[in-house]
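Archive entry. Fields below.
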Amino acid sequence: MSQTPLTLGYIPLVDAAPLIIARELGFAEREGLALTLRAAPSWSTLRDLVALGQIEAAQMLAPIPVATALGLGGLPSRLDALCVLSVGGNTVGVSNELAAAIRAAGHDFDFTDATAAGKALIAAAGERLRIGVPFPFSMHAELLYYWLGALGLEAPQALDVHTVPPPLMAEALASGDIDAFCVGAPWGSIAVENGSGELLLPTSAIWAFAPEKVLAVRHDWAESEPDLAIRLIRCMWRATRWLADRSNFVTASEILSRPEYLNLPAELLERSLTGQLTISPRGEQRRVEDFLYFHEGAATFPWRSQAGWIASRLAARMGLDRASARRAAKNVFRSDLYRAALAGRAVDLPGASEKLEGALEQATEVPAQNGTLILHRDRFFDGQIFDPGTD
Amino acid sequence: MPNRLSIVVVEQDRERALLIVDSLRASGDHEISVIAERTGLARLISEKNPDVVLVDVTSPSRDMLEELTLASSPLDRPVAMFVDRSDDNLTRAAIEAGVSAYVVDGLAPGRIKPVLDAAITRFYMFHAMRAELAATKRALEERKIIDRAKGMLMKARGLDEDAAYALLRKAAMDQGKKMVDVAEALVTAAGLLS
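PREDICTED_STRUCTURE:
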């Protein structure tokens, strides 16, 4: 079979793993795709490269295609999310001074109770809390607003979330530009490793099933090249299935650690894959079940209700009409193409493309196209349920 | 003078910044300032309240400027990326050259184009210089490694320089590898054994 060349962009993060593994272990080749991977220096550049057609597809923060559909940020264009690439994987970290204040007030960094951690953070922060995130349109930002907002911290009066590229996060903490950060793996671990901060909470404790990265393409490209889009979805599905196997974590870490990809110690990367995190420079350990995961529980399925949640949140904070934002966002997550890619294979697909978000306290069996499917727990820390039809 | 454009250039490298400023000056009478700091970038820029911000696309700091596209208060001026949203060619040329521009909404395209053209030309030159420098550096490093491997072969096998070089080249051809890779393997192995 002749191989179709495609260029995919990514940011060197642990959750770029599906793209890297798809290329390195031949999952792309099996679909007749010759992938070239191109690291980008920033999310805005990555988004523009896709929007302008310089590259075919890219790993992208799940809210970026949704924000683009709402006309927020960057060039006017339409981006589609073909599948979800990863769920979770972010951590909230605090400066050493703030960590000391939080500990002095009696919080034990239990790493599971988002309510307790949030209250402790708010109490220790004083009048105004400034938190760095990698990008204005990111799950990092949305989850912070959701979490701290629910605990009574008003944005923008008392909460200032602003963009700091992860490589500059330690510097921003040290110079007092920010008090805390929310970043993806491995940046949280790097902050601990170089002694610039401590980890307070994984974002999976805020929302257990937050779609973190998606594979995004130009809408026009998906329409004119549906066959390539479908092959891309299939190779990502296979790569994430491989990544879900614990016995592959060591190999995955080794491949990601190569100089041409993340160029970081494999041991550091493995922490994120196993969810065994070091949270302080003193070496305290926390184990997080499903800290970052790629595949199980229909993780790669682009739920239209996830796009709806993101749109609803973005609209609320940007002062846009929520109902029309939700409508515009739904079509961005291409569950139709995803179904076409995996139909007729030994893969079970959800019966619906939308669900209540936050309704599952634990992994639950649900009706699927050919029988049943186990969905991952998806609760929000405050027990809220998002109904994509009405909220 | 109310008609002057105010332009902010985000650039850490002083020399590059000066070159950019020179090019922009040549394109018209503008008020130009340079910001080199990396932290608090969005704040520094909104204090200056410029019409145009130019930033290297390879700089990770660019994501900080995305905040400027969101007017957070009624007093803020909304900023769009590029002035003429329909002019994809200009946008593409800029991205290819390695510069991105954030421009205040509502500015006449005719006023921005000369600025962008000047920036694009300058960034193309940087791009070419950077590629050339990287290639030269790589070539030098490769030659150094090959020279070391050659020296080792000459000493260990009692060969003259030409013979050592021929041996290396043959080994590379036999293994379907680049000569520098074979040389590097030899140097590394020798380092481990000694």
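CURATOR_NOTE: The radius of gyration of chain B is 25 Å.
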